[in-house]
Records
---
Amino acid sequence: MCINLLHPLTILTCATSWILTNLIPTTIQVASANILVQSPKPKQTSNRKPNSGKKVQIAQPPPGQGAPPSTPAQGRPGCPGEMLPQPLTALVPESTIVTQPKNNQKSQLPWGKSTQEHPTFWFYVPYSTSIHSSRFLLKNKTGKLIYQASLPITGTPGIIRVAIPPDTTPLENGKWYEASLIVNIRCSSRTRLDNYLTAWVLREELSAPLKEQLNKQTTPLQQAIFYAENGLWYDALAKIAELKQQNLDDGGWQSLLDSAALGGIADKQIVSCCTPRTKQ
């Protein structure tokens, strides 16, 4: 402690002591604090794909429009004694509908919505060399035949697509249509079996606000997610399948099929075949 502040040497000594005691530690502390504050934070890394968590919103049959009767989305296993890991299957979600309100009896309806006048349908075909012939039918809700064609199925087991030709009668907005696939398989040299399944589609045009939102989706993946989130199953599936074949779906194919309890088919190949041969 400095007592005699009038002596020059004493003043110099006191000043030096005060600087060493107070200013230097304070400067070091401030500099250290600045280093801690200004150091960049480590970058956060993640293995999560941008759209890997997207789930399709399965739409329920709209009230007041009347869902059609339930029909099978899966065919029979195949020939007697034949063990198939997955039966003939339509790639479409199933909704629970009440068939008899008095008894609260319910059944499953395979269906989805589409904005397209000529949509595309997808099926998993488990057979290979046993296919003898196959045909595709499209009817309206009253059973009137809209389109039919034979299908030369090759390259299966795998997933096939059936696109309705643009010159076919267009699907009407707000109307239900039933698509059926019938596959005739050889069980033996003398025995054949017709295996069939159906899937329904409800044509629904986009409202003006939804059209505006769709126009803002600049990539095919964004468009597929838009369709999925708005319950437009067939449109979403067609977009995702296109990306899947280019390895650009970013996990969307698996996610979409998982959301419809069809995940077991997601690893099956998409077969390039089956150009319809129109019968009418």
Note: DSSP finds five helices and ten strands in the chain.
---
Amino acid sequence: MKYYTHKPVELKKLTTQTINFKRFYETPDGDLYPSITTVLSTRNKKGLFEWRKKVGDEVANYVARTSANRGTAVHHMCEDYLNNYPMDWPDKWKEHEKKFLPYCLFKQLEKTVLEKIDNIRSQECSLYSHKYRVAGRVDCIAEYDGKLSIIDFKTSTKERTDEYNENYYIQASAYAEMFEEQTGTPIEQIVILVVTEDGVVQEFVKNKYDYIPLLVESIDKPLILDADGLFPYSDSLNELSSRKTPLIITPHFGEFSRLINIEAEDIISNFPTIMEDTLK
């Protein structure tokens, strides 16, 4: 059994409020930001709505409640395991063994992917971003296969695909952006670990830059983008023009060069003309 190393990062705790059935986090500055889960909750839900209509609200609510309880139990097991409970607090750990199905699912994760985690920065911590004006609670921030990552644990009734996971990738990318904004430490890798009711473990490892454009698209608020927020739009500045809400970009000459595919020296020497052409 592995003993995990912790390298804690100090993050400010946030309080939550529920407003009109939606979760909001209060930042240390007193701002109220919606959870990233709330922001993404209506995105690509056509199939879910059709399923709920087909099976009826009673069945749908039962399935959702059962799935949520199972997922919460597995999350707690992963968190306690990474906190070295089996070795340091064996009596507390034995309480998990009483929950048969969640414990079986956890054991599948333990055997296959949890060994790849180490040097844990934080677990179940609140994060927020003034840039994106959202907040949330991430499962785990740690090294995965030696690379600092945002890690989320998921349970599922069946095997998942990238298409089904897209909201998870956007959510994890948002957490990576929040963490960098709060600590100055960049995280590029996002990891979604899924275990199904049949015991199949799926490992999805992605780069946040592939999903930041979808994050920007999903946030229906005025935004200011610079640095990493602009990196995914290299050579594709026109993609930002599709936003319906105000957007301000603040690139330095190097970032602006990547956006419009013109050398920085040429931008500096022909700045007024290039700006006019870009804004047309």
Note: The longest strand covers residues 117-129.
---
Amino acid sequence: MKKFVFLISLLTCFTASGDLAAQKKFLFQRAAEGDAWFDRGYYERAERIYEAVAADARKNKKNYRPAQSLYLQKLAKAKAKLGKLEDAEALYREAEKIVAEEGSISEVTRIQAINGLADVYRQLGEHDKAGKILGDTLVAQEELMGPDHPALAITLNNQILLLRDQGQIDAAMALVPRTLAVAKWRSVRMEVMKNTGDLHAKLDEQQAAQKMYAQSLEVRERWLWNNGFVEHKAEPLSHVEFLEAYAGFLLKVGETAESTRLTAKAAEIRARRGFNEVK
């Protein structure tokens, strides 16, 4: 009888474990669906999916806690895109708190949450708050990861954006060499290059700006290819918006042929991906 009870208990344990694995997989797939809508610029649809995923993850905090921080950050990004900055602020704070309490979650996840919060404050115009968060985060990163870790580029890039918004272009430019030196991750490097191009353009340094935009495009296309976006014809809206902005810049500086090529490429992706549809 004892052996029978033991076997039943063991079977129940395995069943529960299997159900949990299936539930985690389902949430991951749902979050990926939200990512697909987010990449297409359908932020309201992405928001609804992320809200459902985050709600399910909250119901079982113990088992979903590591992933919960990521789901909350995804929801916060969608909220920020929709202009719901106060909601995004609260979500980023919740995500950062989870990471701080869970030692098993990577430090990079925490850095992303903190930087997301700082970016919300930047968009709200609360520059002092954003600056303090970014400054404290950078010091902590350097102590924990060393001065050359690629993750530092995330925080440095946000400092560049903050200084740009404050009109401190020279101070922002002063951060560029170090940021580019540590920006080894292509997803970050391409944004640093794009932002550096914007700074050169503000300083009316058109040749330098064009060089940085061209390098950003090269890194961006390599990143898209390596991550399967090109193969699956799933280029995100952010890539199209970059192409259109770069094309506009080229037109202003007289590079008509390349501007026309990029404009046509952006239009083709927009039409194929349905970016022009009513959302």
Note: Confidence is low (pLDDT under 50) at residues 2-16.
---
Amino acid sequence: MPQRTNKFVAPVCGLLMVVFAYLLYDGYIEVKNTHEQAKNIIEEQQTKHRLITDMYMAARERSVILLTMNTEDDIFVLDELNLEMAKQASLFINARERLDHVSMSDEEREIFEASKSLVSENAPLQMVVSTLFMEEEREQARELLFEQAIPGQRKVLDQIALMLSLYERNAEIIIGDIERRSQKATRDFQILALGFFVVTGIFLVYTYLAARREREILRRNAEEKAFQASHDPLTGLINRWEFENRLGQLIDNPVPGQTHIVLYLDLDQFKIVNDICG
């Protein structure tokens, strides 16, 4: 029974090593994919934050430009400010279009669409105000600026600020989820690695002990065969071949100062005893 058990230990350990190696590789791929997904999510969140910030800065800058035009009389400066208005509008639209292609939660999408609606109402009004300043219709421009354009732009900025606040809240949730997934994947990988090394260690120890036991068995078998070849099985004394071998060694390799004596003993009627008793 022990030999049968030992026969299956090596295959079972080998099978476990293969299974653990596969699971270890699968765990490594999972950790790698988790880190890759985390990297992509973080990059996407950074892009989203940058685009929302660009929209907010461009929208605020347009309000600042209109307020500057309110205090400026130089037509050339007004023309430069009007060009800057167009530039900020282009920056805002570019950031908004790019943000529109970034994945958003339902709540983020709802706020984004609301801000688009507000911008579509307020942007033309801002251009009217800018044009009136250029045409030196200052009273009408001021009236539209402070009664409609600035309040409307404030609503736009509030919506964008709400998007930033929502982004920060969602970013914390996403980062927390990424950390939990990363920790779980890393922990699972470490457990699998530990299991693999434990099974490998058991297999190596078993292999070493089995090899040592096999060498011990071979040594004992060799000694037993050598003893059987050189000794009489009945009496346990050396047989004639071993006697002649030892005698030949003593004759061929004499040691100075040593004396050897051969005692010859003859038993009468020993053949009868040998035939009867074996």
Note: The two ends are 37 Å apart (CA to CA).
